[in-house]
Amino acid sequence: LETQYLGLLSAYSTGLPDVNDDPRTTWRGGFKIFEVLDRMFTIIFAVELALRFLALRCDMFKKALNWIDISVVAISILQWAVEYVPVNATTLRLVRAARLVRGVRFLKLSKVLASLTILIKCMRSSINILFW
């Protein structure tokens, strides 16, 4: 939703004909809500990571998914700290895009997507046959 909101803001500011209303008035407080949600989830993930570290200690660093979580939480906290320091906007966008890796964890651990996982495994197995 945040990406849609930012896209609508860009479309309105460039004057695209499909966006007639200013998103700042139709989505009142949208930017603030997304900022609060972002910080809330950063805190939740950081606390979860700290609890996992307390439980697993050095064993935590043996799994690749934990390294992904560590880097995502570090990037989120770094972004939060850098918001008050003047930084190139493009660099900040790259840091925000890197946070999307957080979704990989949910895809790996979700039991809802078990059928999708089976389908992906079948496609991986059939690659050798396709390029025989």
Indicate the mean pLDDT: 80
The stretches of 5 or more residues where confidence is low (pLDDT under 50) are: none
CA radius of gyration is 20 Å
Binned, the helix content reads over 70%
Total count of helical runs of at least 4 residues: 7
Q: From the structure provided, what is the oligomeric state, counting identical versus distinct chains? A: single chain
SSE string, helix = H, strand = E? HHHHHHH
Main sheet record = none
What's the overall geometry?
Answer: extended
Structural class: mainly alpha
> What share of residues are in beta strands?
under 5%
Distance between the termini: 43 Å
SS elements, strand count: 0
In short:
The chain has 132 residues and is mainly α. Helices cover 74% and strands 0% of the residues.
Explain what you see.
With 132 residues, this protein is mainly α. The protein has seven helices and no strands. The protein has helices at 2-14, 23-26, 30-56, 64-82, 89-98, 102-109, 114-130.
